[in-house]
Amino acid sequence: MAVDEHPHRSPGFHLPVFRRNRTASASVSAASAPLDTHTAAQAYALASLRILTGFVFLWAFLDKAFGFGYATASGKGWIDGGSPTKGFLSSVAAGPMESTFHSWAGQTWADWLFMLGLLAIGAAAMTGVALRPAAVAGTAMMALMWIAEWPPAKHLSNGSPSMSTNPFADYHVIYAVALVAVAAAGAGATWGLGRLWARLPVVRDHTWLR
Q1: d(CA 61, CA 59)
Q2: How far is CA 38 from CA 24, 43, 46, in A?
Q3: Contact partners, residue 66, CB within 8 Å, separation at least 6
Q4: Which one, 21, 95, 169, 196, has the greatest CB density within 10 A?
Q5: Each residue's pLDDT tens digit, 46-81
């Protein structure tokens, strides 16, 4: 009697278990699909932010170096003998470092440091490599430029209105935050060379280079 009942119990016991497993697996797959889509969307958004922010810095370098006729007039580029810092720093008219910036304007060391910074930050952000050093350098550069424009001032040193639109959050702050955000998120892996860069022995040994 016991032998006759065993074959009948066995199929009836295993079939419900199989169905429950398949249902659970389907539920997990359905739940993970929106999560994967959301994660991919975030990666693409951060990669777009990284590339566009990098282009801002790289374009500034190219225009100041070759004088494309936008912010830098044609024939006034760095290769033509022009100074990338003289015009901006000599026109500083507010803030606690006004006289300091005037003394830096047009100095050879200032020109080289500024241009190399623009090139390095722009290239790093666009390619997705060395985002952490780029974020530090870019934040320092944006901080100095923010101080040079000094948005908190309502009036310039000559008494005229500064026309500042916001006492704190100007575009320099936005660029600095964007650089920090893409570096913190490791956004170089999407549409960039971040993964290849991270595999280099020197980068593996010194994670601050990522």
Answers
A1: 5
A2: 22, 9, 12
A3: 72, 77, 78, 79
A4: 95
A5: 999 999 999 999 999 999 999 999 999 999 999 999
